[in-house]
Design brief:
The protein has helices at about 5-25, 30-35, 40-45, 50-70, 80-95, 105-110, 120-140, 150-170, 175-190. By secondary structure, it is mainly alpha-helical. It is elongated.
Length: about 190
């Protein structure tokens, strides 16, 4: 793909993200994207054949950006506890963010597109995050920072807590103090008593 084509595709993805944030997933049409991008219908279809395909690409792009941002913030010699704390801090920022979020669109997409369990992109992201957290916990156990008999279970628990906090922030609102309490509770379960 030429550089000009890459730029056009990037513009479409950035604009589509805004449309999905504003309208959710279910209500967005290809016409909405065409109008928001100010391109022809044929110009859009050169890159994407459906709102589903476009939304999936927006999700992939979001995940890559989040991964790059997180990896870029990790100091070279950071301890597992520091990395886990950074991960939780980034999640807290996302939960508290007043910026428009894709969360509504994400849930609409997955409720509408009941993919086989093993092919579900949201599950793959969840499982990848559990894997990373489990490895951090294992490394923390090895160097004496953490105590945990079931690192995988603890990692899953952390992800379920974060997912619940995200939903709470979107549906009923949640205070920073409440988020801090939940994160502290999670971390207390790992900290070694001296």
């Amino acid at each position: 793909m030429s550089e000009k084509s890459e730029q056009k595709k990037k513009l479409i993805l950035e604009t589509a993200r805004k449309v999905f944030v504003e309208k959710g997933y279910k209500l967005v049409t290809m016409k909405d994207i065409v109008e928001a991008c100010e391109i022809s219908r044929g110009g859009l279809y050169l890159y994407f054949q459906s709102t589903r395909e476009l939304f999936e690409e927006v999700l992939r792009s979001e995940q890559e950006d989040a991964d790059d941002l997180f990896a870029g913030n990790i100091p070279k010699e950071a301890a597992p506890s520091d990395i886990l704390a950074l991960l939780l801090k980034e999640q807290k920022k996302e939960i508290l963010s007043r910026n428009a979020s894709l969360n509504k669109a994400i849930y609409e997409y997955f409720f509408e597109n009941q993919e086989p369990y093993k092919d579900n992109m949201l599950k793959k992201q969840f499982d990848a995050a559990v894997y990373v957290i489990e490895k951090l916990i294992l490394a923390g156990v090895e160097n004496g920072e953490f105590y945990c008999e079931d690192p995988r279970g603890a990692a899953r628990h952390i992800m379920y807590v974060l997912e619940g906090l995200k939903i709470a922030s979107q549906t009923r609102g949640i205070s920073e103090a409440a988020i801090d309490r939940e994160i502290l509770y999670v971390m207390q379960g790992l900290i070694v008593d001296e």
